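About this split. The held-out portion is used to measure sequence recovery: a designer receives only the structure tokens and must propose an amino acid at every position. Recovery is the fraction of positions where the proposal matches the reference. Here is one held-out target exactly as it appears in the evaluation file.
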């Protein structure tokens, strides 16, 4: 191949296409197994959410919202999903939630261990960061091209593209959370003879949990945004409705599908953001209650200042 420096032409796209073709020829069995596994899990989640009556699922989601946050979120969840049912988009909404859950679980299974590894190894961190930058700056729709080429049309390429697009925040915030753990706590664990795995489980992960949960929240939000674009790959769900409304200029369908996506996004965002909060809130409330009880006991004790003999204010009368 002749290269003209004054008229350069680097066939990078052709190299990537050749690499994908090579992978299909030599690792086709692996892609087939991966597609079968992801399709089975996606179908299982969809059947679980779609089989019961819609009001049962609404009650379950409302209970989750109440347990994770408050009765206000539970009320919004019940009303919001009832509105989705009134749009006649219930099955598609459950398909979207199933695809989000599948992609998020796969993304977390990859991103959290990778973030822990990057936090423990500077070399891994230096290698991972440029890759994460590339993954975050690449246009989201570009991920659909190789996914469709390898897996064809359906939910599997949508799930693969979604988990790749949603992984970076999970890796970054997990690494940041582990690195921000107080070194004195880790040194204390070493001083007591704990193994690195035990220090990770009992010291680093509990302390870093709020930041890790913030990363989980970002993974969920990116996954939901990508799932809508995955409708172009034939993933179905609300993304398919949005794509169909664009192709046919169906304004009512587009507005209703978009509103359903917003309701699901608010539910998932508030629930995932609240999972790391209740425990810390209970600790703060418990400390405050203990301090108030201690102050009350001190005030009411026999030797307290409130029940001791007052000091005379007139020195002369006291001396007399």
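Reference sequence for scoring:
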């Amino acid at each position: 191949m002749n290269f003209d420096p004054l008229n350069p032409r680097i066939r990078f796209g052709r190299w990537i296409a050749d690499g994908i073709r090579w992978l299909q020829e030599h690792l086709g069995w692996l892609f087939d197994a991966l597609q079968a596994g992801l399709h089975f899990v996606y179908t299982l989640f969809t059947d679980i959410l779609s089989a019961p009556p819609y009001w049962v699922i609404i009650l379950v989601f409302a209970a989750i919202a109440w347990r994770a946050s408050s009765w206000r979120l539970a009320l919004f969840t019940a009303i919001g999903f009832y509105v989705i049912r009134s749009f006649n988009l219930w099955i598609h909404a459950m398909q979207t939630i199933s695809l989000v859950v599948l992609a998020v679980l796969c993304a977390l299974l990859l991103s959290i261990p990778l973030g822990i590894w990057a936090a423990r190894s500077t070399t891994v961190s230096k290698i991972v960061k440029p890759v994460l930058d590339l993954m975050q700056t690449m246009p989201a729709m570009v991920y659909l091209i190789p996914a469709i080429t390898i897996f064809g049309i359906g939910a599997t390429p949508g799930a693969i593209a979604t988990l790749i697009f949603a992984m970076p925040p999970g890796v970054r915030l997990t690494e940041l959370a582990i690195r921000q753990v107080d070194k004195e706590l880790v040194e204390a664990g070493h001083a007591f003879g704990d193994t690195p795995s035990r220090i990770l489980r009992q010291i680093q992960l509990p302390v870093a949990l709020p930041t890790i949960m913030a990363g989980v929240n970002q993974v969920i939000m990116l996954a939901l945004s990508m799932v809508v674009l995955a409708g172009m790959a034939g993933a179905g769900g609300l993304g398919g409705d949005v794509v169909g409304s664009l192709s046919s200029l169906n304004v009512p369908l587009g507005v209703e599908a978009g509103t359903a996506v917003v309701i699901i996004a608010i539910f998932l965002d508030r629930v995932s953001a609240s999972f790391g909060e209740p425990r810390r809130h209970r600790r703060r409330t418990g400390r405050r209650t203990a301090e108030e009880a201690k102050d009350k006991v001190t005030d009411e004790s026999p030797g307290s200042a409130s029940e001791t003999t007052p000091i005379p204010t007139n020195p002369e009368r006291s001396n007399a």
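Annotator remark: Residues 282-290, 296-320 have pLDDT under 50 and may be disordered.
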